[in-house]
Each structure stands twice: as C-alpha cells, then as structure tokens.
Amino acid sequence: MGNRATSRELIELGKRIQEKRQEARLSQEMLAEQAGISPNTISRIEGGQTAMSVEIFHKLVQILDGDANELLGSNVRAIEERIGLWELFQRARNLNQREQEIVVQTMTALLKGFEKCRQ
Questions:
Q1: What is the CATH number of the domain that holds 10?
Q2: Mean pLDDT computed over every residue of the chain
Q3: Has this prediction a pTM greater than 0.90?
C-alpha cells in the first residue's frame, strides 16, 4: 500500500512539474540542460516513474521559478489556517492569567460542542 501512495505522489508531482515547465515554455530538453540532467530523466520525473534527489528538485524549483510547496502539492489553505491559529495563540499569550483561563475554558467548551455534533 505504501508503494502505491508513493507512486501516486510521484505521478502528481510529475504532473505539477510538467505543468510548470509548460507554463515557462520550456521543452523537456531545455529544462534538462539547465538542470544538468538528461531529457530522459525529465521525462521519467514528469511521468512519475522515478524519484529525484533533493538537489535536482531544488534546481527544478529554481529554474521553473516555482514554489516548492506548490510543486509538492502542499495544501496552502491548511497552512494559512494553522498560521491563523498560531496568531490567535500569540494574542492569547498577551492576556493576563485570568483572561487566558477564560479563553481556554471557552475554547474547551466550543471544541466539546463540535465533537458532540460530529458523533
């Protein structure tokens, strides 16, 4: 099962690299030359048939003027939501002890309510 997930992830990564390459109007040969690898390797990467080293991935990100998280398929919204939660925690840290206790009690009650709704 793990191999299938890895294969699926490689295929998706390859598709995103191919899309980015096409947006940049580069042929596989041009990208390969700039990355210092063979066109066959680019073809296998884009087809999800081979993994690549971190160094090659880094080169491709730079050449394609991309974002590593985007190419890896990271969920930007989830990251933004986590940052939003982090900012709330930071704000709560600036409250006095009693206010922090109220925030914790309120959040605990809200979370329990959501958990009950899911059951």
A1: 1.10.260.40
A2: 87
A3: no
